[in-house]
């Protein structure tokens, strides 16, 4: 499969999916931390659509705004300007109670730190969001997920009795159990060895291909990004490139061109400081 590249670093005004089946979108998204001289503009006006039933990766240099974009999309952080819509609902107009409900019932999260409850078994951790929301556990779906992540024999173990890869698979199963509209994953393989990463990424991709899940994943790893249907590249809080059907090589090529632009900008800054 060949990659389709759209890249004009720093010149792409918007990256919006042509498909009508959009699970999450942002328009004119701006996020500024702090005020006055110390203000940092983490997102500088982003228009983006995430397609339903796809695995989308977000990449970019450190500090480019990846985590901020994901947190704003998931209602974990407030936005300075712009709109975020998840599965047809305007996140910006929600009060705290509605936001909490959205996160509990419509969103799934997988973080680099697995965030499992140490006193609960793997099975209890997986069903925890459903238990908190007082929703029934669909046993058929639960069994399918547990089988898919290969945890059937580990269900009664506590996190401390599981390897890092197994713990992350529990976190993955937990995110999937409630059948969320979309799963947001922030560096989900960041703490995993290569074999566990491969297993987790293959599972995430299967959850999309076989279960119809929609997943948005922030990653630094070109190998992880190659599991996605589409990769979006951020630089300085803007979307600057897009890749469909990515390969590790095509991802690396774009990352290289972005860091070349960064290096040139730094050199210009240094020259003007030195002048
Ligand atoms: N709570 C905060 N207060 C102030 N500035 C912040 C805060 N969170 C993020 N930033 C700044 O916003 C910018 C974007 O940060 P963000 O964490 O989104 O980048 P990132 O691409 O996810 O980086 P990394 O790859 O290093 O995790 C950075 O300049 C960062 O220092």
Oligomer class = single chain
Number of domains: 2
Cα Rg? 19 Å
What is the CATH architecture term of the largest domain? 3-Layer(aba) Sandwich
Bound ligands, each once: adenosine-5'-triphosphate
Sketch the major β-sheet.
7 strands, mixed
**Percentage of residues in DSSP E strands:** 15-25%
Average residue-wise pLDDT: 86
State the shape.
Answer: globular
Q: Could you tell me the number of beta strands?
A: 11
Helix content bin: 25-40%
What is CATH's topology name of the largest domain? Rossmann fold
Q: Low-confidence stretches at least 5 residues in length (pLDDT < 50)? A: 8-15
Helix/strand class:
alpha/beta
How many angstroms separate the termini?
49 Å
Q: Please give the CATH class of the largest domain.
A: Alpha Beta
Strand order of the largest sheet: 1-11-10-4-9-8-7
Helix and strand sequence: EEEEHEEHEHHHEHEHEEH
Walk me through this protein's architecture.
With 275 residues, the chain is of the alpha/beta class. The chain has two domains: 4-92 and 183-274, P-loop containing nucleotide triphosphate hydrolases (Rossmann fold); 107-179, no CATH class. Helices cover 36% and strands 25% of the residues. The protein has eight helices and eleven strands. The chain has helices spanning 66-73, 96-105, 122-132, 139-148, 164-177, 194-209, 222-225, 248-274, and strands spanning 4-7, 22-33, 40-51, 55-59, 81-86, 89-90, 107-111, 182-186, 215-218, 230-235, 238-244. The chain has a seven-stranded mixed beta sheet, sandwiched between helices. A hairpin with a 6-residue loop joins β2 and β3 (40-51). α3 (122-132) packs parallel to α5 (164-177), α4 runs antiparallel to α5 and α5 packs parallel to α6 (194-209). Residues 8-15 have low confidence and may be disordered. The structure holds adenosine-5'-triphosphate. Residues 33-34, 40, 42, 60, 62-68 line the site of adenosine-5'-triphosphate. Adenosine-5'-triphosphate (ATP) is lined by residues 33-34, 40, 42, 60, 62-68. This is ABC transporter ATP-binding protein. One of its GO terms (molecular function) is ATP hydrolysis activity. It holds the Pfam family ABC_tran. It comes from Pengzhenrongella frigida. Keywords: ATP-binding, Nucleotide-binding, Transport.
């Amino acid at each position: 499969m060949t990659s389709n590249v759209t890249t004009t670093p720093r010149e792409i005004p918007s990256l919006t999916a042509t498909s009508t089946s959009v699970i999450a979108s942002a328009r004119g998204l701006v996020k500024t931390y702090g005020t006055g001289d110390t203000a940092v503009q983490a997102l500088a006006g982003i228009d983006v659509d995430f397609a339903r039933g796809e695995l989308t990766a977000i990449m970019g240099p450190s500090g480019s705004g990846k985590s901020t974009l994901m947190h704003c999309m998931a209602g974990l952080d407030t936005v300075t300007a712009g709109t975020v819509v998840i599965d047809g609902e305007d996140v910006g107009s929600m009060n705290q109670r509605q936001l909490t409900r959205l996160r509990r019932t419509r969103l799934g999260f997988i973080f680099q730190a697995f965030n499992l409850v140490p006193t609960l078994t793997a099975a209890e951790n997986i069903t925890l969001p459903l238990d908190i929301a007082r929703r029934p556990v669909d046993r058929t779906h639960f069994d399918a997920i547990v089988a898919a992540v290969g945890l059937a024999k580990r269900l009664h173990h506590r996190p401390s009795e599981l390897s890092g890869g197994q713990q992350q698979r529990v976190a993955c199963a937990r995110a999937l159990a409630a059948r969320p509209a979309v799963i947001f994953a922030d560096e989900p393989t960041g703490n995993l060895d290569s074999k566990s990463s491969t297993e987790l990424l293959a599972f995430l991709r299967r959850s999309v291909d076989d279960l119809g899940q929609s997943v948005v994943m922030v990653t630094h790893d070109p190998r992880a990004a190659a599991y996605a249907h589409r990769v979006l590249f951020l630089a300085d809080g803007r979307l600057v490139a897009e890749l469909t059907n990515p390969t590790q090589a095509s991802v690396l090529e774009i990352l290289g061109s972005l860091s070349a632009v960064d290096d040139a900008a730094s050199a210009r800054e240094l020259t003007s400081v030195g002048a």
